[in-house]
Structures are given as structure tokens and as C-alpha cells.
Specification:
The chain contains 5 helices and 33 strands. The chain is α+β, with helices and mostly antiparallel strands and 658 residues long. It has 5 domains: 106 residues, Immunoglobulin-like (Sandwich); 93 residues; 129 residues, no CATH class; 111 residues, no CATH class; 104 residues, no CATH class. About 21% of the residues have low confidence.
Length: 658
């Protein structure tokens, strides 16, 4: 068998796909050129692959030349390298390291040469200082010129040496970084893969491309930047959402010039198949035959004191509920317990579900099970009692004639497992359908974390339209807040993450996206409107007692103060009225008038001002007593909004006021 050895670092990474569970799938390509036709099998050993994710393997295929070659086998294992006597791995090298070391040697030689040349000149000048005559130099002026030139040469030499020293220092730093990178690679690139190729019978392969896929550890999470600009102090409706992915990988590989995709899908696909229907049978509850209690010898019973004469049973209401309606798949099955001619048995025996003389039978349909009870008269027709239960087919059969083929627990357990399997498969299909995948518009470079740290890769720059509203909650805070609501009209489904909001380039707020629903609007805060403020006041009054009831009146006022020169539109003021956990206490909303009578919509409370229940976001509105005023225009100055409600409680009942 022919064999070739390849290093993965010498071949490009084609693409990287990062999944939601900190797993990335890397695709590498290996071009193959055969100088001679391949007659037998070829083993390709690929070294310097990273540590794979958990127990995941590799996947090999031929993308070019697949008609001529086929993959007979592929497998992977730890790299086989030789260590020194101390157990350390031998230093690896690279073209970059070799070039850096060559440059370092050249700079060192140049520095040494310049030092030697200046030393030679210095020796010559020293000889002149000792009186040795210089040929051709007889005049003192010539000597002065010579010494001046020597000084200039010395200055120039010092400058050149200083530059060389800095260059040598920089190259030495690059060498250290490259050595560190290679060391990290030697520790991380510890996997070796082997792929066995064989020619297709009757075909000749000259050119081929081998594709290798494997999974490694990597993380990604979305990061958004919302940029809002103002025109004359008013936010522009045109905003820009920058969608980036924060990516980190420490595989030892450098993802250089790769196609990058991020997805919310899971890296491993679960088994999904069509579920099988199970046979369904009608079973008697209990699963095993039980002897008739009437045939057993009578044993003395301990009757609680509350079940003896003169004491009332605390379970009386439970024990008296002997008639119940049960819904079958074709309607209601009325199951009556007839007491005529039957001996009433002690109530204490059925307090905890054990009914002496009244075994329970289950009429189990396709989707539900209907419990039925019958008295001892059902077992003894001569006593005059009767009992019949409507089964799923509509016929009336005595429940005691139900046949039992095997314990009911086996059927119920298998049906339960089948149901769980079906639910899991539906969940998997739903997750596959909901998976969101985004691809970068250009190829990216992401080195291993030991070199490059965490990266923020651009996915898209999305222009959107926004609407702006001022929101105040006077009972909590006196400020009026700018809020921004954006409808995602783009083709990008935003995955859960954090949005950093910038107003005129200044970071003003952060918020989290918790849903990937594309139609859900994005809401964020832009800070405080310093030209507006609110005041909150609450007063409590009382009404005369009536029919043993005491009523308190609560009045709140929220005052909007607008110091803008012009009217302000779209102002929302939120408040709430209390709810009582005690049914004896009632809360009645009086103002805004008519709001208590509606569940949705608005009621007019003034010129350009309406009231409604707060249902934006996750607010429950009327169910939680949350409502708000919506003012289409607030003129400069002050505007007062008022709410009134009554709290009615029995006289003498104390409660904590809101």
C-alpha cells in the first residue's frame, strides 16, 4: 500500500460552522495530484489536527475525482511524536520562524560589522593623536576637517546602531511569539487522521480533492449595537443595528480566510423516525384479581373517634360524593352508586382510597380512562341493586365481566413510553425547524485564542425604522424616559443576546433579547429626557359605612411638567391599582371612567389623552391592575392625570394599604 504524510497546517480551512453548544465543525480540503496512475490503495496520514470535541470523530469524502476514487476507510488517533529524555516534545518550526531567525542573524551581523568598521577608524585616529603623520595631510586645517568628519561618522554610527538594536529587539519579540505559538500548537494539535483511498475499477485518477470534517470546541454568542442619531435634539426614525458574533476558539488552529457560519442548531442530530402505534386494550384497574372482601373473615376495625356516634366526620363531604360524571370519548358516562339493598360499610375504610366491597373498575378508552364504582349489590343481583357503565363502544356491560389478559401496568407503561418518544421526536423536528443560521458576508481570520483572544465578527449591518416614546412611572421614579421600539423588518432573525444602544455615539443603555421571534418588536431605553419630569401624589379618604362594609377612597395624581418649547407627542404614563388576596376585600376602579368595563382598547380621559390597560411586553394588563395614560400631545407647562378607586372591606377588618 502506498502512503503519503501530510500536515493539516499546510492546507487551508475551507469553512467553519459554530453551533449553539460550544461546538464547531471545521472543513479542510487537501488537493491531491498523482504523478502516476494510482493502481492500489493509498493511505494518507494527516497530522497536526486539533483535539476533537469529546468522542466525536472525523468524516472524510472525495469532492473532486469522486468518480475515480472512493474512500475505503478513515480513522483517527493521537499523534505519534518522539519526546526528549525529559518528556518534552521537540520544538517544531515554521516558515515564519525560519524567516524571523534569518532576519535576526542579518541584523546582528550588520550591527557587528558597523561596530568593527568604526573601531578600525577609531584606531587610526588614535594613531594620529600620537603624532604619527598622515600621508598627504600636512596642514592643520586639513587635520581639523578630518577630526570633524570623524565626529560626524561617530554620530551617524551611533544612530545606525540604535536603529539596529531596536530592529533586533522587535525581531526577537516576534521570534518569541512564534515559538510560543508553535509550542501551543504542539500541545493542541495532537490528533492524527488516516484516510484510505482506492481507485474505482477501470478508472484512472490523476487529480483529486480530499475533504475532511471534524468537530472542535468553540463558542459564539450574538452581540448587537443599536446606533441612533438625533436631528435638532430629536431622534431620527432611521436607525442602524450592527449584528456581530463574539467568537472564541483555542484549538491551536488559525482559522485563516474561512467561510464562517453560526447557527442555533445542535451539533449532533438526534434520531427522528415515524412513531409506531401501540395496541390498546381495556384493562381492569389493579392488574391482578383480588378476593371479594365479603368472602374474607371479618377483622376488628379501629374506628376513629370522629367516625363514632355523636361525632362528625371531617371527610363527610368526600364520602358523600358517590355520584360523579365521567367524560368518555363519545359523551358523558353517568356512573351511579345504588344503595338499595346494599349494606353500608364503614366510612373509615375508604378514607384513603380503600373501598371495602367496592372495587374500582377502569373503562379505558383510546385517550382517557373512566373510573367506575359499584356497590356490593352489583355482585348480588338478588339484592335488588344494579350497576352499568357505558363503555367506549356504547354498550352496557357489567363491569365485573371485563376480561384481563395481562397486567394493565405493562400497557400503560408502553403507551407512556410511546407518548414520550413521540413528544421527543416532535421537539427535535421543532428545533430543527426553528434553527437560525447566519453566514458572514466576507471571509474572516480567527486565530487560536492563545494568539488573538476573543473576536467580534461582523455578520450584518441592518438599517431599520424606529418609533420613539416617552414613558414615565411617577409612583416609582420622577424621570421621563426615552424609549425606542424597532420592528425587525429585515431578513435576519435575531437570536437571543445583548443590545448595546448608542445615542449620537454615546453608550446609553443595554438590554437583552430573549426571543427569536422575528415579528417581536425590539424595545430599548435611550436615557432620560431632562426637559420633562413628573410629580406623584396620593390621598386617602373614607365613605360612610354601609351594610357592615367600610370603604376607603384612594386618589392619585400624576403631573407631567414639560419645559420643552414645543408640544411633546407620544407620552405614556403608567400606574397600577392594588389587588386583594382576601375575597372579602374588593377594589373598584372609578376613574378613568369606563376603563373597568373593557378588557382592551382605550377610553378617552381628555383632549388627546386616553387610558388603556398595559399589555405591552409581558404585562398582564387588567389581570394585574396595570394601566396607563397615552397622551398624543403634551403642551409646554403642566398636565394632571388622575385615577380613583374604592377599597371595600368588612368593618373592623384591617389590611395593609398599598
Amino acid at each position: 500500500m502506498n502512503m503519503i504524510n501530510l500536515s493539516a497546517t499546510d492546507f487551508p480551512i475551507k469553512s467553519v460552522r459554530i453551533f449553539s453548544s460550544d461546538v464547531a465543525e471545521v472543513t479542510r480540503t487537501f488537493p491531491l495530484n498523482f504523478t502516476q496512475s494510482l493502481n492500489g490503495s493509498l493511505a494518507i496520514n494527516i497530522s497536526n489536527l486539533p483535539l476533537l470535541h469529546r468522542q466525536s470523530g472525523i468524516w472524510a469524502s472525495v469532492t473532486i475525482g469522486s468518480d475515480d476514487l472512493m474512500v475505503m476507510d478513515y480513522y483517527h488517533g493521537p499523534s505519534d511524536y518522539k519526546s526528549d529524555p525529559f518528556g518534552h516534545r521537540h520544538e517544531t518550526s515554521s516558515d515564519v520562524l525560519r524567516d524571523l531567525r534569518a532576519e535576526f542573524t542579518r541584523l546582528e551581523d550588520e550591527r557587528q560589522l558597523r561596530q568593527q568598521s568604526f573601531a578600525f577608524l577609531s584606531t587610526y585616529m588614535n594613531s594620529l593623536a600620537k603624532g604619527n603623520a598622515l600621508a598627504g595631510v600636512t596642514e592643520p586645517a586639513q587635520l581639523v576637517t578630518l577630526f570633524d568628519e570623524f565626529i560626524d561618522i561617530g554620530k551617524s554610527r551611533s544612530e545606525v546602531i540604535a536603529v539596529l538594536d531596536q530592529q533586533i529587539k522587535d525581531v526577537k519579540k516576534e521570534i518569541d511569539e512564534e515559538v510560543q505559538r508553535l509550542f501551543l500548537e504542539s500541545c493542541a494539535l495532537v490528533t492524527k487522521a488516516t484516510v484510505i483511498l482506492a481507485p474505482v475499477s477501470g478508472r484512472t485518477a490523476t487529480v483529486a480533492e480530499l475533504e475532511l470534517k471534524y468537530k472542535v470546541n468553540a463558542t459564539w454568542k450574538p452581540v448587537y449595537e443599536l446606533h441612533v442619531t438625533t436631528i435638532d435634539g430629536v431622534p431620527s426614525s432611521s436607525v442602524v443595528l450592527t449584528y456581530r458574533c463574539q467568537i472564541s476558539q483555542s484549538t491551536g488552529e488559525n482559522w485563516d480566510d474561512v467561510e464562517l457560519a453560526v447557527t442555533t442548531a445542535e451539533p449532533y442530530v438526534h434520531s427522528v423516525g415515524v412513531p409506531e402505534l401501540k395496541k390498546m386494550e381495556l384493562k381492569q384497574r389493579g392488574g391482578f384479581w383480588k378476593p371479594d372482601p365479603c368472602d374474607l373473615p371479618v377483622k376488628p376495625q379501629n374506628i376513629p373517634f370522629w367516625n363514632t356516634t355523636g361525632y362528625a366526620s371531617p371527610f363527610e363531604n368526600i364520602l358523600s360524593s358517590t355520584q360523579q360524571d365521567r367524560r368518555s370519548i363519545f359523551g358523558n358516562a353517568q356512573i351511579a352508586l345504588h344503595q338499595a339493598g346494599a349494606t353500608q360499610e364503614p366510612a373509615a375504610d375508604n378514607v384513603f382510597g380503600f373501598l371495602q366491597g367496592q372495587p374500582t373498575v377502569t373503562t379505558q378508552g383510546f385517550f382517557t380512562s373512566t373510573p367506575a364504582q359499584y356497590s356490593s349489590s352489583a355482585r348480588n343481583p338478588s339484592s335488588g341493586g344494579s350497576n352499568a357503565t357505558d363503555n367506549t363502544l356504547g354498550s352496557n356491560q357489567p363491569t365485573s365481566n371485563l376480561q384481563q389478559s395481562q397486567p394493565s401496568t405493562s400497557l400503560s407503561a408502553s403507551a407512556h413510553l410511546s407518548k414520550l418518544q413521540h413528544q421527543r421526536e416532535r421537539i427535535v423536528l421543532a428545533e430543527l425547524d426553528k434553527a437560525v443560521t447566519h453566514t458572514t458576508t466576507a471571509k474572516v481570520f480567527i486565530p487560536s485564542r492563545g494568539v488573538g483572544g476573543t473576536h467580534h465578527i461582523l455578520i450584518a449591518t441592518i438599517p431599520l425604522k424606529a418609533s420613539f416614546t416617552r414613558v414615565a412611572v411617577p409612583s416609582v421614579n420622577s424621570h421621563v424616559f426615552w424609549t425606542c421600539e424597532i420592528s425587525n423588518t429585515s431578513n435576519y432573525a435575531l437570536t437571543p443576546g445583548t443590545i448595546h444602544t448608542y445615542l449620537d455615539g454615546k453608550h446609553v443603555s443595554d438590554m437583552d433579547i430573549t426571543s427569536i421571534n422575528q415579528s417581536q418588536p425590539i424595545q430599548c431605553s435611550l436615557g432620560i429626557d431632562a426637559a420633562m419630569a413628573t410629580q406623584f401624589n396620593r390621598t386617602i379618604g373614607s365613605l360612610p359605612d354601609f351594610n357592615g362594609k367600610a370603604t376607603k377612597t384612594y386618589t392619585i395624581t400624576a403631573t407631567l411638567n414639560n419645559t420643552h418649547r414645543d408640544p411633546v407627542s407620544n407620552v405614556i404614563v403608567r400606574t397600577s391599582l392594588p389587588f386583594s388576596a382576601d375575597p372579602r376585600i374588593t377594589v373598584t376602579l372609578q376613574e378613568p371612567g369606563g376603563l373597568a368595563d373593557i378588557n382592551s382598547g382605550t377610553v378617552r380621559v381628555g383632549d388627546g389623552c386616553y387610558a388603556r390597560w398595559s399589555t405591552a411586553g409581558d404585562r398582564a394588563g387588567k389581570n394585574d391592575g396595570l394601566f396607563e395614560w397615552v397622551c398624543s400631545g403634551v403642551k409646554p407647562g403642566s398636565q394632571v392625570l388622575k385615577a380613583v378607586w374604592h377599597v371595600t372591606a368588612p368593618c373592623g377588618l384591617s389590611f395593609t394599604e398599598p
